[in-house]
Amino acid sequence: MKILCVAEKPSIAKEVSRILSGGNFRTRNSKNKYIKNYDFKFNFPRKGSCDVTMTSVVGHLTGVDFPPAYKWGNCIAGKLFDAEIVEKVMKQDVFDNIVNEARNSGQLMIWTDCDREGEYIGYEIFKAASKGNNRLAIENIWRSRFSHLERSHIIQAAANPVTLDLKAINAVSCRIELDLRVGASFTRLLTDALKNKSVIDAKDVASYGTCQFPTLGFVVDRYKRVKSFTPEKFWHIQVELAKDGVKTNFNWTKGHFFDRLYVMNLYQECLKHKDGKIIKLEQKRRSNYRPLPLTTVELQKDCSMFFKMSAKAALEAAEKLYNRGFLSYPRTETDTFPATFDFKGTIERQTSDSRWGEYASRLLTNGIENARSGNKNDEAHPPIHPVNYVNINTLTSADEKKVYEYVVRRFLACCSKDAIGQQTSATLLWGDETFTSSGLMVTEKNYLEIYTYKKWESSKQLPKFIQGEVLPITGGIIKEGKTTAPNYMTETELIALMDANGIGTDATIAEHIDKIINRGYVVKEKKKGEIIVPSPLGMGLIEGFDGMDFDNISLSKPFLRKRLETSLQQIVDGTTTKDEVLAELKGLYKQAFSVSNRNINQLVNYCKTVISENS
DNA sequence: GCAAGGTC
């Protein structure tokens, strides 16, 4: 019996082949330069000794589009909500390889990632394989379930296949259809209308996407909050006292008030007392936690914050390092290491480095701390970690140097002890009011020694107060402050917002940000750090849509996309169906489209006004 | 010329 195994990407095909064959496999090339076919023997408990060919695709095999009758210009944009959709092969050479290899195979086994998209890619592989071999039936397809590449886990997965999950496949096909219909119809509507009035160049496209616009919406929303902010004054009491020649400031436990007179009255009462009394002294042990295992989103947030690197550049650098075997797979949502993870071996490979090698050695001698466990798991990939050692001086790209060093330091930090400090705090009673002051002493830096990006330092120490002691107040004043505007959006914050609202995935968040930059909807600006602000066009589009009278929905906010995500999960869980979700969400977007279509001139004129006001 | 999702 011959069994054809197909993974989602070349690296998995190679590694699984190596494990199942015990290293004894033959490699054949395919027409695609990334894809190899591996032949070996393996004993499947259900079939006995089999000839296996293991190969892979490179992500999705097929894409969707409208038939020629619905080409841009051939029909009105609104028609696209109910137009026929055709599937097209995007990578013919990859597709052909599956067709060929399936011809004389008695069994197909899918080894794609254990997530929703992986299930759908499995279905695409099945369809390609059936082209070459019509004896393959979907209900007989083996689907392996594996979440990492540890040997015994892979052997287990090979022995215990399940069937393809049609519910997950339907969920993805629902997403694909909705994104295409909504994206294409709104993009054509916007582009044609804006071009018609010369708001955008003839060569430009004004795209709408279910992820692009909520992303743009976040940026516009923040920008408007900054611009419309009016500071408000507030008042509070601050006290200073001196002991042993050391002056210490105490802060009011009541915080601050916006009513000056009220604060004034309390202050007047305080002033009747010359002395204050230390009524409480406390010593607390403080921990500063080592970081969680690294996900893609965290990597991008940190690289943006620490190195001013765009999310896209960070992911690209990590991908290059992965392709040369230096880092593990860089697209992961998992922040927990598998129980079998080889921490010792991974740390040992870093001991020769001149920057962090000594620390790595010390960890090995003094004991590796168990990494913390987060609560995210994509069931497909482990957290990002260094695989093989590379001296960063030999890397040519500055981004790659930074990303590799960061991943190593982050990993070593994960295996280190938390930082420990002692916090001393004192409470002072002055008249009827209480005030506090505290000092921090970092006693053990631990992970902070290696994770140099983060600062947690000792503050000024408190003098040795004594419980109950009465000390003269050397300064008690009313201080005026004012509320400050929120800051402009940083890329780090934008990534966090998208992640929290389910806009995009670990693999696509960076692309969405990049896209709205390339469309000219937002720009990056240097202003004490890098910020992202909307362009007049981006402002105009969001405010234009927000000004329309939709029925309880918004085209610029993340709610609809989030609702889709929730519905997709319900399809997977079996509590609803693809048809129901499509009917509901397509209906909502279709309504919004017809309102937009009616008011498109208003939107265009509005964009025009905003642009001319800002030029 | 349109989307978002995989991956190289």
Q: Can you walk me through this structure?
A:
This protein is α+β, with helices and mostly antiparallel strands and 615 residues long. The protein starts with a strand and ends with a helix. A hairpin with a 3-residue loop joins strand 3 (36-44) and strand 4. Helix 9 (311-323) packs across helix 12 and helix 15 (536-546) packs antiparallel against helix 18 (600-613). The model has no long low-confidence stretch (mean pLDDT 95). The chain contains 18 helices and 16 strands. The longest helix has 31 residues, at 166-196. The strands form 4 sheets. It has a 6-stranded mixed beta sheet, with helices on both faces. The protein folds into 4 domains: 2-164, Rossmann fold (3-Layer(aba) Sandwich); 169-228 and 488-613, Topoisomerase I, domain 2, CATH 1.10.460; 233-290 and 419-482, Topoisomerase I, domain 3 (Distorted Sandwich), CATH 2.70.20.10; 296-414, Topoisomerase I, domain 4 (Orthogonal Bundle). The chain has helices at 10-21, 92-102, 116-132, 151-159, 166-196, 212-227, 260-271, 296-307, 311-323, 343-348, 357-366, 398-414, 491-500, 509-518, 536-546, 559-573, 578-598, 600-613, and strands at residues 2-7, 26-29, 36-44, 48-56, 62-65, 86-89, 107-111, 142-143, 233-243, 246-252, 275-288, 419-430, 433-444, 470-482, 522-526, 530-534. It binds one DNA strand of 8 nucleotides through strand 5, helix 3 and helix 5.
